[in-house]
């Protein structure tokens, strides 16, 4: 039996960027993001030598998916290089890499062993990390309908084949795995999620690992909300991460510590001005069909380049309405929420029309307009980058409204030949947290 006294459980929420898509990529502007009640949890267990596992192994498993466990060996890298993990061939199963997991291990283990006073590799002991994602991250498939009550449903397929609902799984995963590794290997005097310094470490290290795994430096709003929950977010300067050497090369470990602990991090996380008044809920609608965020960002950037003055005017207006919306969500003024969300929609639709990116396509306009006509629906937007795949709603917190929205989406799906459904997930304000070990809760699978 694993020793639960030595286990840590860290969870991080998914995200919804209610207002501020595209503008938040530029440090001159900020965006309004909420965390979501759908969390990714990571549970650590020391591996007992009696299990016959090789002494320098770390196992990461995601038991909701077929064949998804990854075994890594770890070795020190000379010249302040930190630690490099290498995926070991499990022999019995197909060999599949998980780039997000592997990159996070390289960054976090290198950070831990390179912290001053220099820790040695003996700080890292063999352990297993289990990933448990709340059900709303993935769309249901026929194979899963028989086990609807499970908190962490088995998806009956591999991660690469699962249909994601766009709640930000990679950011929540990188953040919860980073938090769990730090909590598992470092004493509370060096890392604690409950101190502002600990949260800043979690944020900076998760951003670094997530950007490296993604192969691009986005605005980072998804990692910021995974760490801090709801906030008005102003991004960090991308230059902070531009000169890190690659994992496994000399100087990497030292550079990760220097970068993560640097006083130059300049993101702004304003939590004071974000909350959700009692009586209101943020709900997500999943619409089947995908959008490629990267190409939409390229279109908006190209348009802005050519039409700087007009674009900057529009960006400033979006930011202004975003702030009005944040204030109204906090104090519960429905009329102001409705108006501000309407303005955000109008401005984002215009941005799309001007740039050629389908930010609020006509099919979404139709669905949102009809949703806003339902009693109890206060406002709606296409969240994040927009596109065809999601909608976010602010609704009154009563059963009547939830039922009306769910019934409408069913009828609308049939009528319009799409698949739109209300997710169970709710907007929430809390970010990453240390979960208590309460026995069976983490042992369902
Ligand atoms: N539950 C999970 N278990 C293991 N890895 C996961 C899990 N969820 C996400 N990931 C990692 O994140 C990647 C998905 O990232 P990405 O395509 O950016 O999706 P998203 O838009 O949801 O962040 C997966 O390929 C996998 O590497
Ligand atoms: C365009 C953006 O400003 C917002 C994208 O928001 P989404 O919530 O659509 O993000 P993905 O889940 O990564 O597709 C890009 C950014 O801020 O990085």
From TrEMBL:
GO cellular component assignments: peroxisome
Gene3D superfamilies in alphabetical order: 3.30.230.10, GHMP kinase, C-terminal domain
**EC number, as in UniProt:** 2.7.4.2
Catalysed conversion reaction: (R)-5-phosphomevalonate + ATP = (R)-5-diphosphomevalonate + ADP
InterPro entries membership: Erg8 (IPR016005), GHMP_kinase_C_sf (IPR036554), GHMP_kinase_N_dom (IPR006204), Phosphomevalonate_kinase (IPR035102), Ribosomal_Su5_D2-typ_SF (IPR020568), Ribsml_uS5_D2-typ_fold_subgr (IPR014721)
What PANTHER family does UniProt report for this protein, alphabetically?
A: PHOSPHOMEVALONATE KINASE, PTHR31814
Name the protein family. Answer: Belongs to the GHMP kinase family. Mevalonate kinase subfamily.
The entry's protein name is Phosphomevalonate kinase
Q: What organism does the record attribute this protein to?
A: Cercophora samala
């Amino acid at each position: 039996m694993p020793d639960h006294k030595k286990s840590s459980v860290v969870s991080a929420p998914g995200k919804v960027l209610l207002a501020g898509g595209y503008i938040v990529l530029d440090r001159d502007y900020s965006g309004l993001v909420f965390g979501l009640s759908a969390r990714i949890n990571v549970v650590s267990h020391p591996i007992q030598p009696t299990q016959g596992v090789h002494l320098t192994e770390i196992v990461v498993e995601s038991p909701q998916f077929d064949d998804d466990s990854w075994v890594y060996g770890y070795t020190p890298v000379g010249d302040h290089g930190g630690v490099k993990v290498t995926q070991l061939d499990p022999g019995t199963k197909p060999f599949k890499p998980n780039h997000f997991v592997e990159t996070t291990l390289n960054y976090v283990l290198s950070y831990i062993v390179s912290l001053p006073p220099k820790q040695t590799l003996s700080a890292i002991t063999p352990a297993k990390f289990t990933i448990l994602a709340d059900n709303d991250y993935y769309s249901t498939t026929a194979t899963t309908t028989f086990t609807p009550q499970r908190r962490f449903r088995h998806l009956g397929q591999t991660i690469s084949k699962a249909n994601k609902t766009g709640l930000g799984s990679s950011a929540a995963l990188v953040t919860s795995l980073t938090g769990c590794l730090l909590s598992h290997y470092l004493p509370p005097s060096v890392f604690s999620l409950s101190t502002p310094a600990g949260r800043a470490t979690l944020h900076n290290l998760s951003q670094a690992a997530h950007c490296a795994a993604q192969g691009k430096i986005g605005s980072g709003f998804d990692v910021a909300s995974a760490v801090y929950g709801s906030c008005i977010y102003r991004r960090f300067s991308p230059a902070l991460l531009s000169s890190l050497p690659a994992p496994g090369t000399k100087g990497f470990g030292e550079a990760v510590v220097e970068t993560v602990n640097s006083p130059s991090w300049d993101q702004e996380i304003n939590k004071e001005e974000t909350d959700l008044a009692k009586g209101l809920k943020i709900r997500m609608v999943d619409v089947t069909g995908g959008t490629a965020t990267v190409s939409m960002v390229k279109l908006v950037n190209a348009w802005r380049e050519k039409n700087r003055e007009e674009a900057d005017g529009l960006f400033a207006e979006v930011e202004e309405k975003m702030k009005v919306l944040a204030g109204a969500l906090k104090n519960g003024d429905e009329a102001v929420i409705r108006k501000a969300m309407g303005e955000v929609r109008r401005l984002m639709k215009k941005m799309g029309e001007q740039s050629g990116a389908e930010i609020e396509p006509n099919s979404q306009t139709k669905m949102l307009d009809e949703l806003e006509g339902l009693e109890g629906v206060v406002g709606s937007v296409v969240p994040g980058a927009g596109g065809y795949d999601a909608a976010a709603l602010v609704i009154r917190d009563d059963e009547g409204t939830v039922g009306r929205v769910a019934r409408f989406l069913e009828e609308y799906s049939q009528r319009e030949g799409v698949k739109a459904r209300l997710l169970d997930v709710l907007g929430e304000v809390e970010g990453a947290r240390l979960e208590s070990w309460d026995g069976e809760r983490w042992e369902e699978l």
